[in-house]
Batch of 2 targets.
Target 1
Amino acid sequence: EPEVTQTPSHQVTQMGQEVILRCVPISNHLYFYWYRQILGQKVEFLVSFYNNEISEKSEIFDDQFSVERPDGSNFTLKIRSTKLEDSAMYFCASSATPRRQFFGPGTRLTVL
Amino acid sequence: DAKTTQPNSMESNEEEPVHLPCNHSTISGTDYIHWYRQLPSQGPEYVIHGLTSNVNNRMASLAIAEDRKSSTLILHRATLRDAAVYYCILGSALNYGGSQGNLIFGKGTKLSVKP
């Protein structure tokens, strides 16, 4: 079965640095999402992307965050200036229809 | 988004059926009922979804109450690999585009499976 892949699996960065988390969605999927999960807490929606633009974003997704689909295959999440509270697992998801999302294995972001 | 209520935890014995309940008394007529699960240290995984009728797939069955105010995810024979957090999530069928699919996760039900 096709899979969503994410790189890196673990990213360690210093506070204030920029990070880019990468995702390769399943080909022919049209809907793309980022979620995050702080250790021990719920999975939280960040942003959805469809037709080359953001469809919806949560309150968490402020000006420090951006998403891009630079080449038709990758889907990236950029955090411009990381904070300690950005430490979390970040999950990318894609879907052909909104009824069934396929999640990647996640990137663990550690901000020191 | 309409809310769901699930028990915090449940236990099951291996190879026995498991019935995971979900209450969604404020569900609207256009809300789908989705179930996802999250195995330890993994991303969420789709299990099943339905609107009004009961649904079956290779992973599970979804039984939806006639008034749609509750549903039950049924694992027919639990295995150790089914130990996970199970999330019942409502999603509107209205609109198109990414906003239709955003999943709002609650705390879910942590299922433990005993050998």
Target 2
Amino acid sequence: QSVLTQPPSVSGAPGQRVTISCTGSSSNIGAGYDVHWYQQLPGTAPKLLIYGNSNRPSGVPDRFSGSKSGTSASLAISGLQAEDEADYYCQSYDSSLSGSRVFGGGTKLTVL
Amino acid sequence: EVQLVESGGGLVQPGGSLRLSCAASGFTFSSYSMNWVRQAPGKGLEWVSYISSSSSTIYYADSVKGRFTISRDNAKNSLYLQMNSLRAEDTAVYYCARDLYGDYGDWFDPWGQGTLVTVSS
């Protein structure tokens, strides 16, 4: 059971917009800690997609955007492309667990 | 180019030990905290351990506390994970990842390619 809750799967057609939610609690996201997002393409290592709730590292297309409100965060992907098919993970910090960085369970994005 | 390369994975029997290494290049290793993150086959990501740049602060996930030891050698630009008393549930790909931080938490970038640890008799 992950500390952060994500839907197991989402899907969308090419060109559409999809969102992936990440729900936490008062000891992590709700406590004001930032949320970060990673993309893991099949058979590869995770790659940073969004940091500090809504910031994109250099090289990440602006089709990817992040937001945070209360105890939840969201990753939005617009103009869906076939190469976006991957697993997506949110990550934050939890103050109830010493030094603990925590992940969501991951969401599999399928491009129809 | 910032790069992390893990090594040391393999097949080990339950109760055995293994030492993972992570070689860093392309950045000033001694200035950054580091992490180990693992991923069991077909499962999600699990943070394992954190070490500060000077090794003065170390954290472990409860699942590995008392069995795993994180360390680093800044002169060799290397990060290590000594894993003892290994269990079947420790079977996973182990990634090392550089720690970056802001005012409200830290994140991981980049990640190494991972090394597979299989615990089985």
